[in-house]
Design brief:
259 residues; DNA polymerase, domain 1; two-stranded parallel sheet
Length: 259
Amino acid sequence: MLALDADATAVSRARERFESEGFGARLVLVHGSFADLGRVGREHGFDKVDGIVLDLGLSSDQLADETRGFSFTSRGLDMRFDPAHSQPASTLVNELSAQELADLLYRNGEERASRRIAQAIVAARPIESAQQLADIVARAVGRRRGKIHPATQTFQALRIAVNDELTVLESVLPQAVELLRPGGRLVIIAFHSLEDRIVKNFFRTESRDCICPPGQPVCRCGHRAVLKIITAKPVEPSAGEVAANPRARSAKLRAAERL
C-alpha cells in the first residue's frame, strides 16, 4: 500500500503509528503532492493498482496545531501543507491589494461579501494571526445563521490559494486513472463545492465516448470512455456520522471504476 501526503508532519505521525501497529514493509509512506502521484506510484512499483482513495480534507491534527493557522483561534497564519513550495497565507493577507483579495475570496471561497471582507482586511493590516483575521471577517460580515463561522469561506479561499489545491486536484485525476488497472476503483472525498464540481465533471467526461459539442452531427474528438461512474450522486455522511464527527458534515464521496 502506498500513502502520499504533502504535509511532512502528517507523514511522520502516520509512520510512527503504522509501524507500531505492525504494518512494516506493507506500507510505503511518501512526503509529496498529489500532483506527483503518477511518478511516485511508478517509482515505488505501484503502476497498476486495484484502488485509489483521495481524501481532500484537513486533518484534526492540522486544525489543532495553533502555529499553522488552519483554525479560527490559531496564533499563526501560515496554512501551508508544505512550507518548501509556497508562500504563507500571511503574505497574501498583508500584501495583496483589496481587489486581488476580493477576487481570491470570491473565486476560491465563493464568498459573496468578498469586497467588504477584503476592504476590512486591508484597513486592519498588519494581520499576524488567524484569530485576528477571523475576528476581522466576523466584524465585516456579522454573525451568520447556523453553526458555520462567518470566516469559513475566507479561510477556505486562502488555504486553497496557498496550496494551489484546485490545480493539484485537476492534475491528479488523470494520473490516478492511468494508475488503475481495469476494474480498479477511484474514490474521492471532497469537502467543498469547488472540489466536488471538479471531480463530478471529470467523472462525467471520462465516462463518455464522445465529448464533442452537442450540436456537432459527427464525432470528431475520438474520445473514449475510461471510467464507469459508481455513485450517481455523491455519498454524504449520515446523521450518526456527523454527530460522531461534526467535521464530516460537508464530506461528499464519489467513486468510479476503470474500464
